[in-house]
Amino acid sequence: MDETGGCLCGAVRYRVTMDPMAVSHCHCTFCRRASGAAFLTWMTIPSAGFAYTLGEPAIYGSSPGVERHFCGDCGTSLLFRAEAHPEEVDVTAASLDNPAAVEPVDHVWAGGMLPWFDFSDDGLAKLEQAHWQHGYPKGK
Ligand SMILES: [Zn+2]
Ligand SMILES: [Zn+2]
Fold first, then answer.
1. pTM surpassing 0.70?
2. Among 11, 12, 74, 135, which lies 20 to 30 A Cα-Cα from 97?
3. What is the Å distance from ligand 2's center to 44 Cα?
4. Domains along the chain with CATH numbers
5. Ion ligand 1 residues within 5 Å by Cβ
């Protein structure tokens, strides 16, 4: 894929040039707090396929060895990166200029789902943990 995205105020922009390894709704408490939303939808992208094209993100270390990137001006959650997995980054699918360009394939940390939504019939896999534990869909 070749898609662009960015934050609410436009100070930070990025480009994704490789297909996602997965697109997943994450229901962990860290994503919930970081976004202020019920869950965050992430595209896992090979690191070589992601670049910032405008501005610099602010960075918060939400756990040891883990970075969350967001716009320091408007607060939009943009990216998740872990030292232990430098070959991939997670990018928020909803910050794409065209979020419909991707299609979620599963839920991760599904045990954290809030009762507000019923995903039981959506046909997507509900993974107990993340892809690091379960592997990636489609063998990618
Ligand atoms: Zn911004
Ligand atoms: Zn999460």
1. yes
2. 135
3. 12
4. 3-135 (2.170.150.70)
5. 7, 9, 11, 71, 73-74
